[in-house]
Fold:
Amino acid sequence: MLGDFPAFVKLLAGIGVTRLELCSPIGYGAEFSSLANGKDVARILADHGMKSESSHFTLGELRKSQEKSIEWAKEIGITQMITDACPQVKVIALTRHDDAGFVRKLLEAGAMGYVLKQSALSELTRAVRAVAAGQEFVDTAFRRAVTSSSAEPAGAEPAAASEVALSSQEQAVLRLVAAAYTSQEIATSLAIDMTEVLATRSLAMAKAGLATRTDVVHYAQARGWL
Structure:
């Protein structure tokens, strides 16, 4: 049936279906090859008054071709599924992956929290409380890993004790977060994209070992930013 995707969509539309959950052709192979062109999929769905807000992805494709899978999802319009369709829903990603790029993509897609499965249950509890209060949360173990990976190379001049080097943009974003600017206001002030604000804020917090906005405020006060 999926070999003729337009006919399949027309059939479903005829019985009143308005939303369709897909399977990524990148991970699920030939059976879903008719979905390979995301823009065509979006157009066919729109032609029949339908839309897709979610899709199944295989763990293998997210490890090997994450960028390609995300681009396909964007073409269809499902990247911001949770935050666009259900803005009241706050998402925490629970995963074993501690790769910075993976974290960045999840946060750009709308997740507000990132917790590693191998962490203690108390870490998940802290994440739920922080996100419920409208604050982003990144697993402590991940923040330590990021801090460790950004350590000074051998022979370099040591930085101030317990101080992690942040880029100028990371510092600017944290200053504005501490000053209670919204993400949209930060994007406008710094003339950058909203997704870049979210990703920069989360990674800067991770590098500095900060979990909540309150931590950011204390961090800013300690450096005379406020």
Notes: Residues 70 and 79 are 7 Å apart (CA to CA). The chain has 13 helices and five strands. The longest helix spans residues 194-208. The mean pLDDT is 77.
